[in-house]
Amino acid sequence: MTDGVIAQFSIAAVVLVALGGATFTLGWMMRRKRAWSRNVLAHICRVGGLTLIVLTLRQTVYLALSLYPRLHVSQETINIIAALAIALLWLRELLQLINRLTSAQISKGSDPTSARAVARALKVAAACLIVLLFGEHFGIGLSGLLAFGGIGGIAIGMASKEVLSNIFSGIMLFFDRPFRIGDWVSSPDRNIEGTVVEIGWRLTKIITFDHRPLYVPNAVFSAISVENPGQMTNRRIKTTISLRYEDAQRVQPVVNDIRAMLQGNDKIDHDHTLLVYFDEFAGSSLNILVYCFTKTTDWAEWLAAHQEVYLAIIDIVHGHGADFAFQSQTLYIAKD
After folding, report:
1. The pLDDT value given to residue 247
2. Please, which pLDDT band fits residue 273 given cuts at 50, 70 and 90?
3. How many whole angstroms separate alpha carbon 1 and alpha carbon 126?
4. Residue 123 domain-assigned (yes or no)
5. What is the pLDDT of residues 190-218, one digit of tens each?
6. CA 150 – CA 85 distance, rounded (Å)
7. Phi, psi for 265 (deg, rounded to 5)
8. How far apart are alpha carbons 22 and 16 in whole angstroms?
9. Of 70, 19, 28, 69, which Cα lies nearest the Cα of 48?
10. Are 272 and 302 in contact (CB under 8 A)?
11. Residue 155 and residue 120 in contact, taking contact as beta carbons nearer than 8 Å
């Protein structure tokens, strides 16, 4: 081995150590600082350093093959391996950058459904770009890709009709927006109810109220009706108050006081329908309808307002000397 060859190996070793140290330091800084992990320039520098490491290794292998020709490895094979390594490095870096930018947008308050849908589209575009850039190194030309896309697309479409149906349905879910991540949804057509936690390419993941994951194919949502209580603006209070028949003279004052109580309650939304009326002669009671809406949609806050209204109604009924009716029958015995 001549001095010139030793010098070339030494230079390659120095370059590899320098590039490896710089790339490792940059990666460590990106893990420590969130701003660096979302910086496009930092990702370009890191993937550039990794690419130079691969190219330096390729040249080192070329040099080794020139010294040891008995190693039956062709330069074409080395080129393919190097191109594959660079393609995978670029794709990995692009996917990491997209994931981190998506997380940053969600943390800033962006809609998670939109952010993740855009991220998926960018990932597909990144994969297609890598294939177009490096396809020639693997003998895949643009005309070959187009031909495969035509013939293979028909074959794939015939073999995976259900999968494609779910994918297109997922795209329509993004554009139609019947629900978003975090919404509470239910379907009167199917036994589906819970909170949406993920809208994927093929499946939508719903966590039911007993904390069980429910995976629903996206195509199902194009054939069923979906109720989205998660987007409601108010929650309703609707009940019937049953008074005894002997309290008939007290019904009107009770109705007036309940209506006044609701009109003065700051938890009740007075811009929506508020109804308090005596509306039915039942079998064993005089029934009063109470119908109104709370300002909150939070379930716990609604329950608190619900309880407050009911307790106030009890006080009003008892305050007028009336009482609530229960199922009863009166038996009249005729004299002979």
Report:
1. 92
2. very high
3. 45
4. no
5. 888 899 988 887 888 999 988 999 999 88
6. 28
7. -90, 120
8. 10
9. 19
10. no
11. no
Angstrom CA distances, 303 to 4, 116, 195, 237, stand at: 84, 34, 19, 10
Contact 130, 85 (CB under 8 A): no
- Asked whether the beta carbons of 203 and 216 are under 8 A apart, the reply is yes
Tens digits of residue pLDDT in 71-125: 666 777 777 788 888 888 888 888 888 887 778 777 776 667 667 777 777 888 8
- 244 and 209 within one domain: no
The pTM assigned to this predicted structure is 0.53
For residue 172, give every residue at least 6 positions away whose Cβ sits within 8 Å of its Cβ, in sequence order, or none.
222
Write out pLDDT tens, residues 157-167: 554 566 667 77
Asked if residue 107 is part of any domain, the answer here is no
The three-point CA angle 133-168-135 to 5° equals 10
Residue 179 within any structural domain of the chain: yes
Write out the residue range of the structural domain in which residue 289 sits.
232-319
Q: Residue 82 domain-assigned?
A: no
- Total tally of structural domains belonging to the chain: 2
